[in-house]
Every structure is written in C-alpha cells, then in structure tokens.
Specification:
With about 400 residues, the protein is mainly beta. It has one domain: 6 Propeller (Neuraminidase). Helices cover about 0% and strands about 45% of the residues. The protein has one helix at about 390-395, and strands spanning about 20, 25-30, 40-45, 50-60, 70-75, 80, 85, 90-100, 105-115, 115-130, 140, 150, 155-160, 165-170, 185-190, 200, 210-215, 220-230, 235-240, 250-255, 260-265, 270-275, 325-330, 335-340, 360-370, 375-380, 385-390. The longest helix has 5 residues, at about 390-395. The relative contact order is 0.15. The model has no long low-confidence stretch (mean pLDDT about 95). This is Glycosyl hydrolase.
Length: about 400
C-alpha cells in the first residue's frame, strides 16, 4: 500500500532496509534511500561478488541537466547509500545499466541528451575493476549520430560464441519538429571483441518498437521484447542466427502503455516479465510529448507539432499502472500467469516530482539470483525506486 502525505510526497519508512511486506510474508521489499527529488529508470544486476547492484537516474526532473546516474548495492538486507556516477552539467544523463563483463570488469552504460531532445542522445561508459567500489574515467561509447540520437535501456546479452549484444533504439530527428518518438526504430549493437568495436544491425519493421530486451532462449534462438510507442501491445521478434538478423516485431497478447518493460529468462527456462498492464484503450487524457512540462532553451526554433490522428503516432499519457509480474512457460508465446505488484491510478500527465503530481509505477527491472528469488525494482511516483523480492510461485498463487 503506497502512502503519501497531503502534499503527495511519499512516506518511505525505513528506506534501504529490506523487510517482509506486512500483509504478504512471501514478499520482501523496501524503498531505496532517495538522493534527489526525482528517481527513475532502475536497472538491477547480480554482481560477481554476490551482491546485487542497482542503478537509476536522479535529479530535479527528467530532461533537466542535473539528472545523473546513481548506484547502490544490496548486501544482506541493506541497500547502501546512493553514489552519483555521472555529472555532466550540460546534459540530462539517463537510463543507466550495469554490465558484468566476462573478463571481470563491471561496465556502467548510460545515455546523455540535451534537455528533452532524445534525438541528441549519445551513450557513455565507465568501467570498474572492483565490482563498483571505484570507477575509471567517463568515456563515450557511441557518439553523435547524423540525423538522430542513440538510446538504450536494456541489458547486454553475452552469447555462447562470445558476442556482446547491446540493444539500442534510434531517436530520429524531424526537420522543424521537436522529438516526440514517432520515428523511433530499433537496432542491435554487436561486439565480437569485448567492446572495442561494434557493428550495428537494424531490426526490420521496428518503427515504434523500442526498449528492445534480448533473451537467449538457449534453444538456438533469441527472443526480443519491445515497448510500443503506439501504446497498444508489447511486441516480440526473434533471431535464429545469433542476432545477425531479426524478424519484424509482432504484437503479443500483453498490453503496453508506451512505457518500459523488462524480461528475464529464469533458471528453469521460463520467462518473467514486469510491465504495466494497460494500453491506450485505458487512457482518458493524452500528452503532446514526454517533456511538455519543462522549459527548454535549446529548441533552435523547433516546435512540438499537433498530434497527427491520420496515422499511428506516439501516445503519451496512458496511466502507468498497475505494475504487473507475468510468467511464460513457452518462450514468450503466452503469458497465463500474472499478478500485480502495485496498483493505483498511474497518473503520468506530468513528470513533476517536486509537487507530488505524478503517481506512476514504471520502468521496472527484473533479475533472478542463484537461490531462485526474483528481484524487481521500479519507479514509484517518480520520487523513489522500490525494491521487491518474490519467487515464481508467488506469481502463480491464487489471490485470496
């Protein structure tokens, strides 16, 4: 049960201390210690030393240049105090992820954009050789792209042949118009030399399909799941040649609200997805763009155009709730087992955290540790990151 004071500010309790949920002893949870007014876009990763790493972005508000990447570690039942790992005063630094490379290095990868213009995004990198206790210098992984920006959100997949697959999407620029997402497409960056060089492989027919999340099904095929800019369904595509080519994304049975999802392959071969079980069909309002509530002095004369109802266009403002955990036992072809982690109205017609106006549950991350536990983190009201741990059986239980 989410609680907030009359101003809309979350009441976080004993933040950082993982405890059983009072009404659900099979579930353990807590809020991460907050470092900033806004916290968003968590990514969880088991680290080689046995701890659990979590990164997210924080600052005043997404798109503002005080947004930076933050890192915390779970050891025992305590999350450590957040550490800021990026600090570019000219760019909004977003969507961090951790990648434990096979050689023992821990990579931090994140995006950096000018204001609310995702078509200016580049991708940066830092490397740690001691599981995130210290970090090397900041470098650019993917620099400026002619005609658009490069964005990423989902983990790197290491294949049996040693290739690294980092899914990206391309935020295309439109002359005279500010970025809203209508022209976004997906691709995969493939490295066969431990990240020294990369080859870009486009996903055909991927217009509007972003946040590509690649899974090795360990049957000779890869599956990739996508967020939809059209706010209709989660999409899926597949590869049978180690990611060198992909089928065009097709809708699954799961709805999507133009917000992030994440999927993990479990030790038993099942897939677990966290997502918002909502779509444009549930919307009563619509935003012009993701960044329509921040002032922007970098427009260069560009404007946000009116919503074009004559074709499919990016749908912003669909409620970001409930937060749902689903299980597939057939490689993502069906999702019969679903249970809500959080419910609410999911109001997201603003990204404002200072005034407590946003009430979304969003941008989930999921991973499994060797003990079989599922570890999940997600945004609550754009004010804090919440951590939850359950097991697969919890999803399949019938609600009382």
């Amino acid at each position: 049960m989410i609680s907030a004071d009359p101003s809309g500010k979350l009441l976080l309790g004993e933040a950082g201390h993982v405890l059983p949920a009072g009404d659900d002893p099979a579930r353990r949870e807590c809020y991460l210690p907050p470092a900033t007014v806004q916290s968003h876009a968590a990514n969880l990763t088991p680290l080689p030393d046995g701890s659990l790493g979590l990164v997210w972005f924080g600052g005043t508000q997404e798109g503002v240049p005080d947004i930076s990447a933050y890192f915390s570690r779970l050891e025992g039942d305590r999350w450590s105090a957040p550490v800021r790992l990026s600090d570019d005063p000219t760019r909004s630094e977003q969507n961090p992820l951790l990648f434990p490379a096979p050689n023992g290095e821990l990579w931090l990868i994140w995006t950096a954009q000018i204001s609310g213009n995702q078509d200016t995004a580049i991708v940066r990198r830092r490397i740690s050789t001691d599981n995130g206790r210290s970090w090397g210098p900041i470098g650019t992984l993917f620099g400026e792209r002619p005609g658009g920006g490069t964005f990423m959100r989902q983990p790197v997949t290491v294949l049996s042949n040693g290739d690294w697959l980092l899914p990206i999407w391309i935020c295309a620029s439109t002359p005279g118009r500010k970025w809203v997402g209508d022209e976004d497409t997906s691709a995969v960056m493939i490295s066969s030399d431990q990240g020294r060089s990369w080859q870009e492989v486009a996903v055909p027919g991927s217009l509007g399909c972003v946040h590509m999340n690649i899974l090795d099904l360990q049957d000779g095929t890869l599956a990739a799941f996508y967020r939809s800019r059209w706010a209709d369904n989660v999409y899926v595509s597949r590869s049978s040649d180690l990611g060198r080519s992909w089928s065009a994304p097709e809708p699954t049975e799961l709805p999507n609200n133009n917000s992030s999802i994440q999927v993990a392959r479990l030790a038993n071969g099942h897939l677990a997805m966290v997502f918002n079980e909502s779509s444009a069909a549930d919307a009563t309002e619509r935003r012009l763009s993701l960044y329509d509530d921040i002032e922007d002095d970098s427009d260069d004369g560009k404007v946000v155009g009116a919503i074009d109802t004559s074709r499919r266009s990016t749908f912003w403002g669909v409620p970001r709730a409930p937060m749902t955990l689903a299980i597939s036992e057939d490689g993502g072809r069906s999702w019969p087992h679903r249970r809500n982690l959080e419910t609410g109205d999911g109001y997201c017609m603003t990204n404002n955290s200072r005034e407590g106006l946003n009430r979304e549950f969003s941008y989930p991350s999921i991973t499994q540790t060797a003990d079989g536990r599922l570890h999940i983190a997600y945004t609550v009201y754009r004010q804090a990151i919440k951590y939850v741990s359950v097991d697969e059986a919890w999803v399949k239980e019938t609600a009382a």
